[in-house]
């Protein structure tokens, strides 16, 4: 599949035409040891366009047999050393070539994610830009990270070296298919590991296209492989493998817990988890420009149809401004209706599949049953496709299901508070700790509350603003890993001590 559009798509009709061209020649096979292959079992899985309900393709459904082949090829590549022992400067060049190829094919990559999981194509383009930025940032970093010389006496020399781990299995979700992939594979590859990627069964197409670009960029055989398939088959096999050294996972907390068990049952491989969230967004009465804050609070949950790990799904508002503020959030929500993902003007698209659509609707029903006040939305949009409008519940309490559980859809729960202490206690009353936001003009309060929030990241007077220079990850049951920034490289390298005795 080498669709190279002659013109940059800008209108819905352009995107539709490109979609037609692309779906006629999709790569659907696994990529193992530099070869595109069907699953050993011959099984396939259907990937559906959730905006239309139509089947896009039947993709290889890998299982343990395919995992064994990929792991053997990854180990062989690692031992061969044409990537693992290549100088960081040379690895950088290859990864920069890959980033350039991704840029040249950005419309096609964005469209594959849109067709596969229903997000608006304009947001998908932003994701691809983020993925390319991640590749570039990490590649540029790898030849600037030094080891250490220990502070010894003259009779010895202590070196602390950073070495690649060996074989890394990256298991990723469907909500930002290629961006989550880039966050995992860029540092793992830059550090010299062999990487096996398992994309979500709901969104494998962009990862398969990426393999073709990686090959063109010059990644040696066995260094980057992709196994599409289900979690309980090929994902589990990778996690239980004795020859995989690290699992880098983004997905739900439930599966993250299973992966830790698999590591314990096998070879104690490293397990880095980026899991779920129920992120609080605190709005204090002293914040500036309520209209803008309300728009941001709505976008923090409705962007990507609410299918975002760091979605600001709990909005905590000072009761002094709650009435007027929630009215503004409701108005903003009304302006964020879902539309055709191929329309560049659409703010929201379709839910990823029928299962997720039903799950979100069940939560909405539970919100009503448990006594939360529905302010807007709440009723699914008639098909075809799985569309749910922005939904706002006010008067939510910490005891309600929609106030505690991750919904992963366009449902906002609004809570009221009377004091800063109450707001912080409510924000921290969660199993999760992925992100938190706070809106205020009082610098003392900003610093005080930022420190007290039990969260991997705190956004002050913005939501999800950070770029590649800072780490991304959570505490508590949101996980233990950190993507992005140079700190991500630490996860994919082992510290080795070399101690030399020196003659006087
Ligand atoms: P999921 O946990 O169902 O699946 C994630 C991946 O794990 C998929 O590739 C899946 O096939 C695989 N998997 C499932 N069961 C497995 C098993 N037994 N063994 C090995 N692999 C298995 O999550 P999802 O529905 O794809 O994504 C939504 C979740 O991801 C949400 O909870 C969201 O918060 C989380 N997420 C977190 C971050 C973050 O950075 N913290 C980012 C995006 C999404």
UniProtKB/TrEMBL annotation:
PROSITE patterns: ALDEHYDE_DEHYDR_CYS (PS00070), ALDEHYDE_DEHYDR_GLU (PS00687). It holds the Pfam family Aldedh. Keywords: Oxidoreductase. PANTHER family: ALDEHYDE DEHYDROGENASE-RELATED. The keyword Signal does not apply. GO terms for molecular function: aldehyde dehydrogenase [NAD(P)+] activity. The keyword Oxidoreductase applies. Belongs to the aldehyde dehydrogenase family. InterPro entries: Ald_DH/histidinol_DH, Ald_DH_C, Ald_DH_CS_CYS, Ald_DH_CS_GLU, Ald_DH_N, Aldehyde_DH_dom. This is Aldehyde dehydrogenase PuuC. The active site is at 274. Residues 37-498 form the Aldehyde dehydrogenase domain.
């Amino acid at each position: 599949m080498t669709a190279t559009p002659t013109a940059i798509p800008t209108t819905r009709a352009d995107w539709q035409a490109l979609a037609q061209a692309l779906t006629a020649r999709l790569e659907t096979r696994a990529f193992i040891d530099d070869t595109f292959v069907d699953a050993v079992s011959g099984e396939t899985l259907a990937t559906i366009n959730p905006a239309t309900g139509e089947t896009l393709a039947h993709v290889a459904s890998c299982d343990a047999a395919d995992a064994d082949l990929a792991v053997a090829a990854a180990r062989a590549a690692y031992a061969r050393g044409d990537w693992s022992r290549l100088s960081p400067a040379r690895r950088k060049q290859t990864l920069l070539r890959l980033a350039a190829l991704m840029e040249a094919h950005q419309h096609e990559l964005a469209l594959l994610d849109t067709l596969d999981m229903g997000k608006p194509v304009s947001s998908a383009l932003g994701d691809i830009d983020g993925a390319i930025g991640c590749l570039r940032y990490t590649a540029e970093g790898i030849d600037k990270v030094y080891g250490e010389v220990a502070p010894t006496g003259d009779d010895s020399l202590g070196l602390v070296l950073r070495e690649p781990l060996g074989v890394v299995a990256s298991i990723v979700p469907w909500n930002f298919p290629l961006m989550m992939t880039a966050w995992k594979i860029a540092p793992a590859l830059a550090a010299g590991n062999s990487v096996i990627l398992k994309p979500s069964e709901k969104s494998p197409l962009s990862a398969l296209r990426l393999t073709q670009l990686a090959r063109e960029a010059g990644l040696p055989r066995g260094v980057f492989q992709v196994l599409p398939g289900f979690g309980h088959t090929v994902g589990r096999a990778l996690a239980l493998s004795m020859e995989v050294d690290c699992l880098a996972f983004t997905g739900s907390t439930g599966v993250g817990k299973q992966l830790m068990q698999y590591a314990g049952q096998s070879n104690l491989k490293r397990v880095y988890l980026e899991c779920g969230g129920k992120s609080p967004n605190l709005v204090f009465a002293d914040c500036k420009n309520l209209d803008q804050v309300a728009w941001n609070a709505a976008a923090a949950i409705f962007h990507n149809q609410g299918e975002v790990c760091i979605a600001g799904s709990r909005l905590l508002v000072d009761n002094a401004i709650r009435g007027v503020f929630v009215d503004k959030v409701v108005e903003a929500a009304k302006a964020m209706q879902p539309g055709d993902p191929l329309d560049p003007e659409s703010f929201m698209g379709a839910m990823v599949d029928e299962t997720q659509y039903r799950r979100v609707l069940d939560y909405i029903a539970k919100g009503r049953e448990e006594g939360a006040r529905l302010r807007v939305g709440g009723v699914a949009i008639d098909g075809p496709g799985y569309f749910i409008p922005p939904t706002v519940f006010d008067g939510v309490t910490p005891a309600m299901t929609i106030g505690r559980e991750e919904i992963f859809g366009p449902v906002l729960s609004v809570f009221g508070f009377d004091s800063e202490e109450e707001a912080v206690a409510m924000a921290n009353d969660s199993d999760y700790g992925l992100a938190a936001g706070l809106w205020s003009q009082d610098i003392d309060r900003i610093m005080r509350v930022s420190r007290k929030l039990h969260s991997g990241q705190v956004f002050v007077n913005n939501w999800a603003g950070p770029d590649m220079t800072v780490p991304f990850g959570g505490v508590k049951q949101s996980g233990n890993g950190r993507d992005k920034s140079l700190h991500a490289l630490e996860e994919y390298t082992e510290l080795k001590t070399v101690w030399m005795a020196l003659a006087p």
